[in-house]
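#data-curation
PF: Archiving a pair of folding outputs for the training set. Convention for this channel: one message per protein, sequence first, structure tokens after, nothing in between. First:
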Amino acid sequence: MKYLLVIITTFLAFQAFAELTTNLASNSCDRAINSGVATSSGTVSNNDQVVNQAIPVGVPLSMLVWNIQKAKNQNWPQVYSEITVGSDFVVLQEGVDTESVCGLLDSDLNWSFANSWTSRKGVRNGVMTGSKVKPYKELMVESPKREFNFFTPKVSLFQYYNIEDSNESLLLVNVHILNFNLINAFKDHIRQITDIVREHKGPLMIVGDFNTWHRWKKQFLDEEFATFGIQEKKFKRYEWLLELDHIYYRGLEESSLFAEQLVVNGSDHFPIRFNFALKLNLGQ
């Protein structure tokens, strides 16, 4: 098992290096991105113009979480168009601002793009989140380390949403966690997220690609999140060997929760459909 992980990690490393020099079209997502583009670590965007936009309480909502592998798969456009229908939130990792991606972004959603790195051809890479309700505050945070300590960083996008008839807010975190590093770098990245989360007292969801390809990563992740009352929504998995993508949450109505992995050919990750609702009695 140890040698298999080494082989897999080496293969992925070469694949990642190749991605830096891939000739990708340099097109901008600016026309599709309504909430703006965060381009530096710690960038905060306060949307003061948001009026009467809030997440309803006790109402079923739907989220699609997916690492889209930079939209390399030729089936990606069709699959994406089919599986995102009716989604209140679309949370993507390995997003790129190419025309093939930006042209598919649902105009009914408010999109935000957090840039992790830019290729030599000027194509931005990072995480993207679309939502029917516009967040009132956003924060982009770059990982404390880089891949292999010198390669590209990862990025997390924190978004805060008003909740109807409540003084609390909903926090949604779109994460892509460091992959090719030792345990201490992984721990530092997770603690960077919890250092921000600890200040939030309301309901929250932390979703995305956690790169938990070893049990010690997953064990630390569960223990760290449990400290803040955050738990994982389990679902039947169809991956072969690696379980990388997860849904973590707090303050949601338990009876409303449903998650499933969609077996589709559009990326090297299977997307996750997550249905949820906020608790009727927040703070209890």
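PF: Second:
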Amino acid sequence: MDPNEHTPSPGDRFAVGRPFPWERCPCYPIPMSRAEIPAAVPLAGRIVRLEPLADAHIPELLAAIADERIWHYSIRGDAAHYLAAARHHMEQGEQLPFAVRELAANRLVGMSRLFDIVPAHKRLELGYTWYIPEVWGTKVNPEAKLLLLTHAFEAWGARRVEFKVHHANLRSRAAVEKLGAVPEGVLRKHMIQPDGTRRDSAVYSILDDEWPKVKGGLETRLTNA
């Protein structure tokens, strides 16, 4: 069957032989324009600045990304290809990757990304997050999350932000749960790791009506010593 043709049923209001108006179907993957995704602008806090990924970031990120401790539970593959793919998706207006700069040291310490963006339903995913081990457990991640979630909910008007984390990555799962994200279950055999092993993914979300409480919690964490 030609996917552009519609097979009429009794009472169908579309004329026989006329192409089906797929653009009216909410589940049809309509190509996005850059105007429909969150704006690619720097997001600045007191501890970090999130900078839309640019070619100038690549050399420093390649050096940071080489630490294998970062990738124990993550799918990266070739580092150069990983970063090139992020740039490609950004240039196509499909994703919004950020390089995370630690302001005190003026160095890039990781990345995070807004992706799987569905403007029609005002939802997106926050992920592809990694940091060098030296900033694990610091305020870098909480502030980066505060900046990204504020951008998603308040600037773009998201109704839902979701997270998917390797089921066995207890450190990352604890970080997402500490945000106040709600667990929604586990996607079994969700991915195949580069070494061929199985990845189950734990799914979490934050909704727009939950955001004020989550935001308050993050601001309290960043204020406290």
